[in-house]
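debug: dumping io for the single-chain case to check the tokenizer round-trip. Nothing else runs in this session.
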Amino acid sequence: MNTTKHSYKFLEICTHVFCWILFFGFPVIMSQSENGSIDWKAFMKFVIVPTSLFTIFYINYFLLIPKILFNDHKRKFLIINVLIIIVFSIAIRWWNEMHLQPPPPEIIRHNPPSRYMFMIRDTASMIFSVGLSVAIRLSIRWNETELARREAVKSMTEAELKNLRNQLNPHFLLNTLNNIYALIAIDTDKAQEAVQELSKLLRYVLYDNQSMYVPLKKEVEFINNYIELMRIRVSDNVNVETHFNIKENSQTPVAPLIFISLIENAFKHGISPTNKSFIKINIEENKNSIICTIQNSNHPKTTTDKSGSGIGLEQVRKRLNLLYPERHEWKCWLSDNDRVYNSSITLKI
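debug: decoded output
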């Protein structure tokens, strides 16, 4: 944000300098004689109005607008500007009468403009200068407010995402420990192997996924390690298929643990202790998207099964809305016979 503010400030200064150089260049052009030299008396005639506009502009720009108008003293701001314009109008008339010689009688036009017409012109120019100063200041203030709002939204989003990730990690660990606990009573050797696989997962959960995004290759490796851990527990009547169609060493950024809750859900509801079951997990990387598709046999857990509380899927929904607003699609549906559960997340890169 500081870099943006410095860039905007530099651009603002350059714009002011450029505009005033052009503005004060007109009196110089108007004061040039036929041989190219500058008639300084004529220059003094023409420069008084630009100087007055310059002064009124910056009195408002640096003092009256930030100190009075932005503090909601509009009436005071108008009164002060009216007085300033009156004073400068009188000063311009006095200056012209003191320093300008009347033109020779032979070149005076038949009906010369009234001096009051010049006063009206100069007054209108000064009112325009005040209005321009207010418009620019309001624009800058709006821009600063918008930058601050965006920074606040960004900070709030990052804090909420960090909170969601902190909630998801213990939830994931609890589910995995429940799986290992169930495995201990069945096969202690497999349980020991599962603890080793769990250490790999914890290394990723605790250290590698603290960034907002991680390379897709790392996320897929983590998912594959998790699936291998789950394979240790499941029986032979469960068919687990995986297809990872991503670029070699893919560095495409993806939110960490964004798919794992869906995969957990598949192992939770897609496995039957008695019937044949299947789980198919497919992750595909295209030019503009990442697609995770999961199919599993539908075996909803019973009311006595406490292996999970459904927190993970709710966290996925919140994280998708925060990290991929209007850039994701999440669909879940049952087959016509209610035997196959399908879920799909598409992330637009």
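debug: round-trip ok. The helical segments are 2-30, 40-67, 74-99, 115-184, 188-208, 216-233, 260-269, 311-323.
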